Amino acid sequence: MSIPIATEASVLAPINPDWTIAELVEWLADDSRQHDVALQHPLALIERAVTGETWIRTPSTVALVRSLTSAARTHGAVVIADLTPFESQFVPLGGTSSGTNRDRKERMPEPQVA
């Protein structure tokens, strides 16, 4: 019996792995998506792959959207599928990954770009 490996599409659903970070931020501009708890895990995987940082506590969906919006300023053209393979990033949110131990400090929210 073989163990199935999750694909990027299933891990990131409903986010399209072919989107750029800028396209993802544009899709997240809908207020209802910014508070969708179901997006928390896929956004956390993408945010971690883009910024390389981990969180001290489990981040809210809104915090992840803000971080990705900030990252889009410099990484907006990066295609999500081109980021580090997502299967290797299955770590409990709020935990540390083997790649980095830098902890993100709580900070004031950054201004949103519409």
Task: Report a brief summary of the structure.
With 114 residues, this protein is mainly alpha-helical. Helices cover 38% and strands 4% of the residues. The protein has one domain (11-93).
What does this structure look like?
- It is built from five helices and two strands; from the N terminus they run H-H-H-H-E-H-E.
- It has 114 residues and is mainly α.
- The chain has one domain.
- It has a two-stranded parallel ribbon.
- Helix 5 links the parallel strand 1 and strand 2.
- Helix 4 runs parallel beside helix 5.
- It is globular, with a radius of gyration of 14 Å.
- The N terminus is likely disordered.
**Number of domains as seen in the coordinates:** 1
Mean pLDDT: 76
Please give the count of helices.
Answer: 5
Largest sheet: 2 strands, parallel
* Structural class category: mainly alpha
Order of helices and strands: HHHHEHE
Amount of beta strand: under 5%
> What is the global morphology?
globular
Helix content: 25-40%
Number of strands: 2
Strand order of the biggest β-sheet: 1-2
Point out poorly predicted stretches.
Answer: 1-7, 88-106
From the N-terminal CA to the C-terminal CA, the straight-line distance is 49 Å
Radius of gyration: 14 Å
Spell out the key features of this protein:
mainly alpha, 2 strands, Transposase, disordered N terminus
What is this structure's SSE topology?
Layout: H1 8-12, H2 21-27, H3 31-34, H4 40-51, E1 54-55, H5 61-75, E2 103-104
Parallel strand pairs: 1-2
Helix pairs in contact: 4-5
